[in-house]
Amino acid sequence: MVIFGLLHFMYGELMAGLVPSIIPGGVVWVYAVGFVFIASGVCIVTARYMREMGIALAVALGLYMIFVDIPGLGIPAIQQSSMISLLKDISLAGGALYLSSRART
Q1: Do residues 72 and 85 lie in contact, with contact meaning Cβ atoms separated by under 8 Å?
Q2: 15, 55, 6, 57: which is closest to 36 by C-alpha?
């Protein structure tokens, strides 16, 4: 997750094109998700704040699925890559929720 987060900061301007035009802020959202990814990676490694991390990561991935992956399924040129990304994001969100449910209080 840390690598994904770093990529969001390294290629933020490029990734901003994936943010739907109905959502203002573009690159700000890319950096916010990058921060969530980095923070979740740190939480996994340190085994601290696991419950909060799992929920935040699942929400971030869920929003990405709703606003980017699912609309991409209707565009023939990117339909296949959108389906792959959707399945990957469902798996990552499920893993985050699993880790969250296993967190010690």
Answers
A1: yes
A2: 57
**Three-class secondary structure of residue 56 per DSSP:** helix
In tens, the pLDDT along 5-50 reads: 999 999 999 988 888 888 888 899 899 999 999 999 999 899 899 9
3-state secondary structure of 105: coil
Q: Could you tell me the residue range of the domain that residue 84 belongs to?
A: 2-101
Q: How many domains does the chain contain in total?
A: 1
pTM listed for this prediction: 0.84
Give the C-alpha separation, 71 to 68, whole Å.
Answer: 6
Residue 69 has, within 13 A of its CA and on its CB side, a CA count of 15
Q: How far apart are CA 100 and CA 56, in angstroms?
A: 10
